[in-house]
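Troubleshooting entry. The earlier prediction with NAP gave an output that would not parse, so I re-checked the input for stray whitespace and re-submitted. Clean input:
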Amino acid sequence: MAIESINPATNKLLRRFEPLTDNAARQKVALAADVFRSYANVPLDHRALWMRKLAAILEHEVEDFATLITQEMGKPLEAARFEILKCADTCRYYADHAAHILAPESVPTEPNHSYVRWEPLGVVLAVMPWNFPFWQVFRFLAPALMAGNVALLKHASNVPQCAIAIESLVRRAGFPRGSFQALLLEVNQVETVLSDERIAAVTVTGSETAGRAIGAQAGWQIKKSVLELGGSDPFIVMPSADLNLAIETAVRARCVNSGQSCIAAKRFIIADEIYDAFESRLVAGMEAMRVGDPMKEGTDIGPLATVRAVELLDAQVKAATRVGARVLTGGERMLGDGNYFEPTVLAGVPRTSFVYREELFGPVAMLFRAQDLNEAIEIANDTPFGLAASAWTRDPAEQQRLVAELQCGGVFLNAMVASDPRLPFGGIKRSGYGRELSAAGMREFLNAKTVVIASAGSANDATGKPYLLSATDAPATR
Ligand code: NAP
């Protein structure tokens, strides 16, 4: 089936591509494997130079790349510009910090000399989504290339032009031919590529369905995988919070990227004491969002990225109302050519319903009333997902409990959840496993090679005698 780039604001076809044949894909894998042998030995300073050049090109051509993103997946132009600049920042972060992250780590094991040597794994396959078509790729690409890995990208089928643009700009930055290649593939070709023995590992950002399928294939192949999957992040507000800031952030956190972000706040859990005030102001905030042409400055929410996405969201909202949810505002697809959906607030979604346990990937907020902090935490954790959480309170004791008891990969107190190249990003439960960004993200695709250089007469020298940390660590029975 052809891979089509369609403008979601008009549903007009922009470009059509034929997927690679299996044979052509194999040739690209071969090129990647071949390049890896020399690329891994390119001095770090040299890679950092290319990475900085990459950042400079992104910044210099921000308008072109942002326009491409907006045309291909519909996010407001301003958000697309921000996405490109964040990619540039991340390239610089890894150019600046790779030497430190990759430095051998000496471990005192006297009298031996021991250290950990960080080595790239080889060719890493990245299966990526459309919602941040540059950022999702760059947050993998920058640490991978800096570490000496090479990469193949199977991008979402609705953003082929972004995939091609990224490959070309990596080349223009100076990285060797074949170090980063976009493969225009159909979903059913991913397994074939992954099973090629020259592929060392895979990273997936996408839905649970994709993660489950590829994670299982990687497990079967005994290949390292990182899964960054969906989320239904809670946004908890307690009575001591700065209510004005919390509400303003709540609207932004739900509508970021037209509601299509894994870390968008999706479930709003509000303390009983402030619930009514919060509800009416959240509704007003959602109604004030400007929905429309994403190319127009000032638009807050564009169309959803595909017809399928808007149809799914519509079906989920209808399913919620069928089981008793109340629509406080919005709730409908908007008329016209594009995939627009009204900013929506739902209250009273039963926690026993299917839709409660699903991710709503669009501008639809679900509101819940909590009697106290115990109930707020209980609702927050009552989800199959565990990506991140935003919690609003000025009470230090409540803050401590939230940090300790929320089951997720990141807790943001009095702040909106956001990714940051300096901090690990990822989830637990069905939001996936592994981390991106920071040193943790870079090390996912590295071999922590233990090196021990024995000194004569040491406890674990060539005689293979067991090693004891110290006499006091010895079991009592000895
Ligand atoms: P998706 O449908 O899972 O697609 C993601 C990628 O996986 C696409 O390249 C897709 O290819 C591919 N894919 C889908 N099913 C596959 C399968 N069975 N085998 C191999 N490849 C498969 O997800 P999406 O709708 O594009 O993205 C939205 C989802 O991503 C949401 O759930 C969101 O929360 C999640 N997400 C998570 C994070 C995170 O960091 N945790 C970040 C962003 C988004 P095709 O396009 O060709 O189908």
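This one parsed fine. Residues 127-131, 136, 154-157, 187, 190, 205-207, 209-210, 213-214, 228-231, 262, 359, 361, 387, 427, 431 surround NAP (CB under 6 Å).
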